[in-house]
Specification:
The chain is α/β, with parallel strands linked by helices. The protein is built from 15 helices and 20 strands. The strands form 4 sheets. Strands 1-2-6-5-3-4-7 form a 7-stranded mixed sheet, sandwiched between helices. α1 crosses α2 and α5 packs across α6.
């Protein structure tokens, strides 16, 4: 029995290459995905396949290609391409689905498979997206079952190649016609692309919009120069992004993860402002742009995302809809609200993943860069000035958000703690309990909340607490944590 984790869920498949992620596991998973796509779209569905470019991706791609072809899909090979680029290509070229060989922010030894699907009928909102939670659960169930996904030789698919290097940047260009971006604004940005798929798209983006780019780790080697998750710890080494921005007298620093669907921001002084501010800045950018739209303005965020989004929405006449954690859940709510006549401005998560529906219904670091640069250019404010503006919505102190985690043998092991916390606060005056995904307790008057849930991507339970000030946030985290045991 292999002890290495194999993660299956709404984010697809992830494992440690050669341990939990073996050729047999990868081919079988891709075959199950292919069979689901054949059932959804009919014979020979077209699937665009890209990769985040991490070392060794070609062997995983070969396994995924085999599983998809063998189950009856035709595979369009894009090579190294970001997750949002794959989504844009699926939309622009009319393919049925996309797969990305990626483990997102996980370390070098990991890899995996992420799925994107297109709408199937006239009644379904347009735009490629991650599969729904129900569809993902069906794929996991089929993978764990004994079904045979392979088709006879005459029903297998065909591979062909395509070029997608600049697709995401060009899609952002189209969205900018709605009063959002100020091109040629003379700003200088430093981008850390961790030698992965975001590097080429970042260069194209800078060329299109006349932004001066200094690129860190912009090779296509797939060798991560540091742990790839765009956190303060991983960007603060000597010569890293936090050093480079003030050293180069740049206006802003951006850090992508390997498949470039997440973005972290560093201000002009070299301060890592935190991934939670990425969605907040992008929401502020869109809410203050001259957009000619109709319908109630709505922002969509998951339950683990900072209350900054609520403060910004309230200040600009919009409202926030919360969803379970997971990109697919956010997108599903965005599409449902749009079908009801709402102006869905933006969606996303507090991990730096922003979904700008005018571009693509996938988290997109390139669109996020565009929105932050646009806000800076239109307002004339630095990143630190914009952060101060957002913090000023609760009196200038800003929030403190604390994120802790505990190991789990399985996701089901989190259930007793979730039930205990929900029961403890369910009758407390002023506390609102949300059990869509684990349990979130909100104290609206205190502008504080706690969320406890099992992770979709790692064998851990997450506890997140946020309040105006570190002392209160820490007190909430300790108080709720004591109930977990």
């Amino acid at each position: 029995m292999v002890d290495a984790p194999l993660m299956l869920g709404v984010s697809g498949l992830r494992g440690i290459v050669g341990e939990s992620l073996t050729p047999e596991v990868t081919v079988r998973y891709a075959g199950v995905v292919g069979a689901a796509l054949v059932e959804r779209y009919g014979p020979a569905p077209s699937v665009a396949m890209g990769a985040d470019g991490r070392v060794g991706w070609q062997s995983i791609a070969a396994c995924v290609r085999a599983g998809l072809l063998g189950s009856g899909c035709s595979v369009v090979e894009l090579g190294v391409a970001t997750t949002p680029t794959v989504g844009v290509v699926v939309d622009q070229e009319g393919y049925d689905a996309g797969v990305v060989i990626t483990a997102s922010h996980n370390p070098q030894a990991w890899n995996g498979v992420k799925l994107l699907v297109s709408p199937t009928g006239a009644g379904e909102p347009v735009g490629c997206r991650a599969p729904s939670a129900d569809d993902s659960a069906a794929i996991v169930e089929a993978f764990r079952g004994d079904g045979d996904c392979w088709r006879p030789p005459e029903e297998t698919g065909l591979p062909w190649a395509a070029d997608a290097d600049a697709a995401a940047a060009h899609a952002v260009l189209f969205a900018m016609e709605d009063g959002v971006l100020v091109p040629d604004n003379g700003l200088r940005m430093v981008v850390d692309s961790v030698n992965s798929s975001g590097a080429a798209v970042a260069r194209e983006f800078a060329n299109v919009f006349g932004v001066e780019l200094v690129q860190l780790h912009g090779l296509s080697s797939g060798v991560f120069p540091h742990t790839p998750e765009p956190t303060a710890e991983n960007l603060s080494d000597a010569g890293g992004l936090c050093d480079a921005v003030p050293g180069l007298k740049a206006d802003v620093g951006f850090a992508q993860d390997p498949d470039a669907d997440r973005l972290a921001v560093v201000d002009e002084t070299g301060r890592y402002i935190g991934e939670e501010y990425t969605l907040a800045l992008c929401a502020l950018s869109l809410l203050t742009a001259e957009r000619d739209r109709e319908g109630e303005r709505v922002l969509v965020a998951n339950l683990s995302t900072s209350r900054m989004i609520d403060d910004i929405a309230a200040a600009h006449g919009a409202r926030v809809v919360r969803t379970p954690v997971g990109e697919a859940n956010v997108v599903e709510a965005m599409k449902r609200l749009a079908s009801e006549g709402c102006d869905v401005v933006v969606g996303g998560e507090g991990n730096g993943g922003v979904i700008w529906p005018d571009v693509v219904h996938v988290r997109d670091s390139v669109g996020s860069m565009a929105l932050v640069l646009s806000l800076m250019a239109r307002s004339g404010k630095s990143v630190s000035g914009l952060v101060a503006e957002i913090d000023g919505l609760i009196g200038g102190k800003g929030y403190t958000i604390l994120k802790t985690k505990r190991p789990l043998t399985s996701q089901e092991d989190a259930a007793p703690a979730v039930s205990k916390i929900a029961a403890r606060y369910g009758s407390e005056s002023g506390a609102a309990v949300d059990t869509q995904d684990g349990v979130r307790i909100d104290w609206a008057e205190r502008k504080a909340w706690v969320h406890v849930r099992a992770s979709n991507t790692e064998p851990i339970m997450r506890l997140i607490a946020e309040a105006p000030g570190e002392d209160e946030a820490r007190s909430l985290a300790e108080q709720v944590g004591s109930l977990i045991g």
